[in-house]
Design goal:
The complex is a heterodimer of chains A (455) and B (394).
Chain A (H helix, E strand, L loop, with lengths): L1 H15 L2 H20 L6 H37 L2 H6 L5 H37 L3 H10 L2 E6 L5 H17 L9 H16 L1 E2 L4 E6 L12 E7 L1 E2 L7 E8 L6 E8 L3 E7 L9 E6 L8 E2 L6 E9 H27 L4 H16 L1 H7 L14 H16 L3 H4 L2 H6 L5 H28 L9
Chain B lengths: L2 E13 L5 E14 L3 E5 L6 H8 L7 E6 L7 H4 L2 E4 L11 H11 L4 H14 L15 H12 L6 E5 L7 H16 L3 E6 L2 H7 L2 E6 L2 E7 H5 L14 H13 L13 H14 L30 H31 L2 H10 L3 H7 L3 H4 L3 H19 L1
Parallel strand pairs in B: 3-7, 3-8, 5-6, 6-7
Antiparallel strand pairs in B: 1-2, 1-4, 8-9
Helix pairs in contact in B: 3-4, 11-15
Classes of the chains: A alpha+beta (455), B alpha/beta (394).
The structure holds adenosine-5'-triphosphate and magnesium ion.
The site of adenosine-5'-triphosphate (ATP) has 14 residues of chain B, from strand 2 and helix 1.
Chain lengths: 455, 394
Amino acid sequence: MSAILAIAFKVFQEVKKTKPALLLFFFVLLLLLLFPFTLKSDGTLQGQIQLFLSYSFLILSLALYSNSIFFTTLSFTSEIKGKQFYLIDCKSVARWQFFIGKFLGIALLNLFSLFCMGFILLMLVIYIKETQGTPEERQDVQEKIFTSYQGYLPYIPLEKLQAMVEKEYSKRKAENRLPSNIGEDEIKSQIKMQIQQQLQLIPQGYQRIWNFYDLPDGLRNTDQKIKLRYKVYISEAGSGFLCKVSWKIGRGANTYILEDKVKAGEYFEFTFPASTIDEKNSLEVHFLHKEEKSGMIYFPLEKGIELFYPYGSFYGNYIRALFLIYFLSCFLIALSLFASSFLTFPVAIFFGLFVLFLGLITPFLLEISPLSTHTQEMAWEKITDILSYSILQFSFFVVPDFFYYAPTESLSLGRYIEWKILGESILKLLFLRSALFTLIGCFLFRHREVGKPIM
Amino acid sequence: MYEVIETINLSKNFQDFWGRTKAKALDRLNLKIYRGEIFGLLGPNGSGKTTTVKLLLGLLFPTSGKIKILGSSPRSVICKKYLGFLPEESYLYPYQNAQEALFFYGRLFGLSRSVCKKRVDDLLDMVGLGKARLRPLKEFSKGMARRIGIAQALINDPEVVFLDEPTSGLDPVGTREIKDLILQLKEHGKTVFLCSHLLSDVEDICDKIAILYGGKIRCEGTVGDLLSKKTATQILLEDIPAPLLQELTLWLQAKGIKPHVEKPRERLETFFLNIIQQARMQQAPTSGAMQGIKKEDFFSQNPLPEKKEVNPVLAQLVQTVQEEPEELDAIPQEKEEEKKETLSPAAKGVLEHLVTSPKEEKTEVQPPPVAKESKGKKDILQKLLGGFIKKEQS
Ligand SMILES: Nc1ncnc2c1ncn2[C@@H]1O[C@H](COP(=O)(O)OP(=O)(O)OP(=O)(O)O)[C@@H](O)[C@H]1O
Ligand SMILES: [Mg+2]
């Protein structure tokens, strides 16, 4: 153990006395500190803080990611190229201990620098929040950003839905309208999707009711605000059209009513008191289509309407956000160590950056890849299909979806970052991917002839 | 005695990416090095010395053949606990200072902090860098870095020490110190594997040597055996008056022996050491390495302490620890007796007063700090002298 710790500690010596690393650190710090003040937001305090948070988190995480790759690769490969590793390898240190020691050292270094930077950023955010804007704006920011909200989706009566699906399926079957080349399950899931979409359509003069059940106990007795976030599309007008909306939240005496005009295709949110929740901890939300000039109003299936209730503080969220970035950086350290265990510096760097790049464009890749379209339709006869499919599958295993774990949006929108996703990142990034890369890396490194370089 | 290092038909070819052989560095090398020996591997540049050491330490893998170090594979982590290695160049971290570097290597061996600190202090004094302990290694001169390299090789009180050209880059004082250190190691029962092409170094200290050329051993044996001139005898006398010298010459001529008489020259090493010693006495300023301090109690006298941890061969080695010094002592004693018995009374008379071996002379003239003879060295010298005289007599 002392060997591992010694190697880890040496990483700190390495950084402390390597000036480029320090320079980079201060450069990023400068960017973080100065640049946000030059950015122009929509003029509100909320906009300013949101912009600041997303900008600085983007810079911070990118700096950390690229630095993890660069520094890890440099630190590892230079030991072998510079032959300093000879002196380590002839001591009673197993190669895996060296590997783990490096990982630990750089991971601790990242933790340290990330939390230093994170602290500075937090201070800046608080400074902006306390000194800028009007008191109302500050109150607004306190409610919208400095409180983190847990998201909640409306209840879907699954049994009813399933029954409707079955009915529709039998009807089509009877009418002989079923496509022959698709399986039954596939057809049913398509029908289900169609029905769900139909249910999101509201003709003029109609109203749609959503139910939110099982909200947290006691929430209704607090004086906290609940938030509803929604987006609408309009069938006979393009996006940007200003549409009249009319909401009625709750039942009986504690009803909250809102009439507003919103732009189609954009997210809107409004808050209302928690007292609208009834004794059974459920909430009824009515939407009334009163706009005469438009046809149907449509709420998109994915996140078309979502309820948020206050759940935690901004600070807890902030720390979880930092940890999400941190675990991604740990994955990159393991990846770079793996690459360095058998590649030379330039190649290993290239590999690391390439994976980072792929990780950043994963959502796009997923969209265009055959993985997103349905697998059952794939022509398994074609060997190229099988090959490209497995390569894709493999690369999506190697490259995690960076956006999935990226905390910036949640943080600046005041969404509660769940422990679940943190746990998932520990499990999938650390225990699965990092551990696997470390294992393979140790194995490769163990069988590497490190005494080769002579000049 | 047990082999500490053994290689069986060890070969190493260097191949390129496509598996084509670029260089044949070693060709069926067979070595057996026993405990307590100083073994010198000689050879011109590119003969495969460094490759041998790297193979013995597991930094390179053999193309064919077998290696056993302390009875196990060179890649065993346990056996590495007992090894020390000084590579041909000191591969140190420029960002550490002397103290940090040694501490780091000590911790790699799992030494506790306090033990580590103590050893680091002792070693820094020993290699004469006590004053430079806080200077970054990137500022070190080649010789100073070399000294740190030596210190790091000894941090774990190793059982077997591999030294690849230990004296390269060192000043003569440092060279002398290293040589003394190596002898001191031997005195404590350690085994030393030395690579060098500096013949004088090897000649001074090695028990056994092998000469490598093109990856093959061309010649192997003890220094005494290989170097003794079987056809001549050298008698070294203090400055004696001319008439006595003439008398002696005549006496020898009468016996049918034609002596070759000349004034011996001081060796440059001895001369140089004298000059430096004088400068040090005057306390002339220098930012370089200082004189190393001999730490008599630094090396463990009873190495390989944990029996259960080591393999059978190591365990056997542990048992021989006590026997060995006797064995070493036994050789010269025996020879001394032989020597006394086989000398004729006339020769005995002259020798009793005057004879010293040429090798011993060199150390006798040395300045105080380096002249202090280690017991181990005396043993070797006695051994060498014993063999020398015995052969001449027979
Ligand atoms: N990594 C390598 N790749 C190719 N050839 C190598 C490699 N390492 C050593 N060699 C070759 O092996 C041979 C032996 O080299 P080695 O370094 O062992 O010599 P040496 O005896 O230590 O020489 P020197 O006295 O110059 O240090 C040389 O011909 C060298 O070119
Ligand atoms: Mg060499």
